[in-house]
UniProtKB/TrEMBL annotation:
PANTHER family: LIPOPROTEIN-RELATED, SIGNAL PEPTIDE PROTEIN
Naturally occurring in which organism (per UniProt): Flavobacterium aureirubrum
Keyword Signal (UniProt): yes
Domain of life: Bacteria
Taxonomic lineage from the root: Bacteria, Pseudomonadati, Bacteroidota, Flavobacteriia, Flavobacteriales
Name assigned to this protein: DUF1573 domain-containing protein
InterPro entries associated with the record: DUF1573, Ig-like_fold
Signal peptide segment: 1-20
Keywords: Signal
Gene3D superfamilies: Immunoglobulins
Cited Pfam families: DUF1573
């Protein structure tokens, strides 16, 4: 009798293990099939990977250059007409020429990191994208004070 129960238990666990592995394989196939693809837009279109760049906490006079990456998910060429920073401390740059359908491009931005303290600035992008002719992007972060000048007061003559 003990042998019959032992055999039944081994058979049960063996079948359960095989079924568990089969279920995992099916679940992986379903996950792979649910990846969404950005639909094509009729005309020029712009889709940014991120519309906000967070510099985090950076050192005084650190490299302030960053890039907004985008794709033309439309059916016609995309032209970036202009880029404008919200103040003189934010200098954007635009790609020259048209971005073909499915092509990638970048909007460069350089923040003046000689300005100490927290910041939130915007970059306005104008393009021929259908329904998105104007897009506002954001940069933010905090620039630390220069340790060499911290705690020193200007000398009066």
């Amino acid at each position: 009798m003990k042998k019959v129960i032992l055999f039944a238990a081994i058979a049960f666990f063996g079948i359960a293990t095989i079924n568990a592995q089969t279920v995992k394989k099916v679940a992986k196939k379903e996950t792979t099939q649910t990846i969404s693809v950005t639909p094509k837009v009729d005309g020029a279109a712009i889709k940014f990977e991120n519309e906000t760049i967070d510099y985090g906490t950076i050192q005084h006079n650190a490299d302030g250059k960053r890039e907004f990456v985008f794709v033309n998910n439309g059916t016609k060429p995309l032209t970036i007409e202009s880029t404008q920073g919200s103040c003189g401390c934010t200098v954007p740059s635009k790609p020259e020429g048209a971005i073909a359908p499915g092509g990638k491009g970048t909007i460069g931005v350089k923040y003046d990191t000689s300005r100490v303290g927290p910041f939130t600035k915007t970059v306005t992008v104008r393009s021929n994208a259908v329904g998105q002719e104007t897009k506002v992007l954001t940069i933010k972060g905090t620039v630390l004070a220069d340790p060499a000048t911290e705690g020193t007061a200007p000398v009066k003559s």
